[in-house]
Design brief:
The protein is an alpha+beta fold. About 50% of the residues lie in helices and about 15% in strands. It folds into 4 domains: about 1-145, no CATH class; about 165-215, Roll (SH3 type barrels), CATH 2.30.30; about 220-300, Alpha-Beta Plaits; about 325-365 and about 375-400, no CATH class. It is elongated and about 140 Å long.
Length: about 400
């Protein structure tokens, strides 16, 4: 009888040990669960406990082995948590990288809970635990005050990593800073501005403020710039000029089209605002430069003044018969053209007196096919490209140079 019980005990020991080892290998191969040496110790302790239970051992050693089984089982719990919570849910599904520090902290919490359960239930040490917990609570409060900033930073980093309000490559506006996200960690976020300047902003400051993501939900976003015009020019005329200037700026998005608004009445000017669309904030400075440059040329042609922010008194004395700027240059060009070779000098002068000299910026359209008007343009200085529209595309057919 004793021999039979011993044989059954040995059989149960090996069956439980190798069975649990086989389950661990299956989890590792099929699910990628990382099980280390503590899981093997758990299998050994579990096999011993099962054998002692079958054999009928009632000594205190059985309780110690049971406590070891509970504590070592945390290795399996932590491994499953790492695989299915950290790796699968966060890193695979939500694309959030969980740092090793947070993984180890979660594992320590699981182990601490198991230890408290063993001490309170297995060893009936509730009284001793109350004293320990009371003392540790005081220590925790002291450490909490000392590590307040660190915990606040780590909490903010965790919130940003899990919530993911922005990702690498996004353009953000945080307070007065605008930049592209080049690095995200648990302490701060690094931005690179259009001037190639690196800015590190603490995550705790980011979560307390407002985050404007210029790249979400799409990269297409609107920006605005302001310009002033004199009170003598009708607002609709100014807004038309602003729209023409913005529409011809290189790199601007035409769908949606730009818009112009009367923003405010200033001390020396009416303030207008141009709203334009772009897909990459990296070109913001270039777009603003192109739009402002086109506005200057458009206002010059339309005789719209950009007033100074101060009051000035200007006295002009006109000299009779004084030629306008570019008059002599234009007269020489007209005489060299076969179309005007039959005209006398007085006739050429009369033609020039009734003409205007306009300045155009790079990329602006001088005249468009099918546009209203009966004016004739003569290129005095610069380079102009001649294009025709075909199948919704502009095809260059020639270049004029002077």
């Amino acid at each position: 009888m004793e021999t039979q019980r011993t044989a059954v005990t040995v059989a149960v020991f090996f069956l439980v040990f190798f069975g649990s080892i086989a389950i661990g290998r299956l989890l590792k191969r099929r699910a990628g669960v990382r099980l280390g040496v503590f899981y093997r110790l758990f299998c050994l302790a579990l096999a011993f406990y099962a054998a002692m239970h079958v054999y009928g051992v009632q000594t205190t050693w059985r309780g110690h082995v049971g406590a070891a089984v509970v504590l070592l089982s945390t290795a399996l719990v932590i491994a499953l948590f790492d695989r299915y919570v950290w790796d699968y849910y966060y890193e695979t599904r939500r694309q959030v990288v969980i740092p090793r520090l947070l993984r180890e902290f979660a594992g320590a919490v699981v182990l601490l809970i198991a230890l408290l359960l063993v001490l309170s239930i297995g060893y009936h040490a509730q009284t001793e635990l109350q004293g320990i917990l009371a003392g540790s609570g005081v220590i925790a409060i002291i450490l909490g005050f000392g590590m307040q900033n660190l915990l606040k930073t780590l909490g903010a980093g965790a919130a940003l990593q899990i919530g993911k309000p922005y990702t690498l490559g996004d353009w953000l506006k945080i307070d007065d800073h605008i930049g592209q996200v080049v690095e995200i960690n648990w302490a701060d976020t690094r931005l690179r501005t259009n001037d190639a300047v690196s800015i590190e902003i603490p995550n705790s400051k980011i979560v307390e403020g407002t985050i404007i993501n210029l790249s979400s939900p799409t990269a297409l976003h609107a920006m605005r710039l302001s310009v002033g015009a004199d009170y003598a020019t009708p607002p609709n005329r100014v807004k038309d000029a602003l729209l023409r200037a913005a529409s011809h700026a290189e790199g601007i998005e035409h769908d949606p089209p730009p818009k112009a608004y009367l923003k405010d009445f200033g001390d020396s000017a009416i303030l207008y605002e141009v709203k334009f669309w772009m897909t990459s904030h990296a070109t913001y400075n270039d777009l603003c430069d192109a739009i402002r440059t086109n506005i200057w040329y458009e206002f010059k042609r339309q005789k719209i003044n950009i007033p100074f922010p101060i009051r000035t008194l200007q006295v002009e004395r006109k000299t009779a018969g004084r030629p306008r700027p570019g008059h002599k240059e234009a007269a020489g060009i007209l005489r060299s053209e076969p179309l005007f070779s039959c005209l006398e000098d007085e006739q050429v002068g009369g033609l020039l007196d009734n003409s205007e000299v306009h300045q155009f910026g790079r990329g602006e359209a001088i005249i468009e096919e099918g546009a209203d008007g009966d004016s004739m343009f003569v290129l005095l200085r610069g380079t102009a490209q001649v294009s025709v529209a075909k199948n919704a595309a502009l095809i260059r057919v020639g270049v004029l140079r002077r």
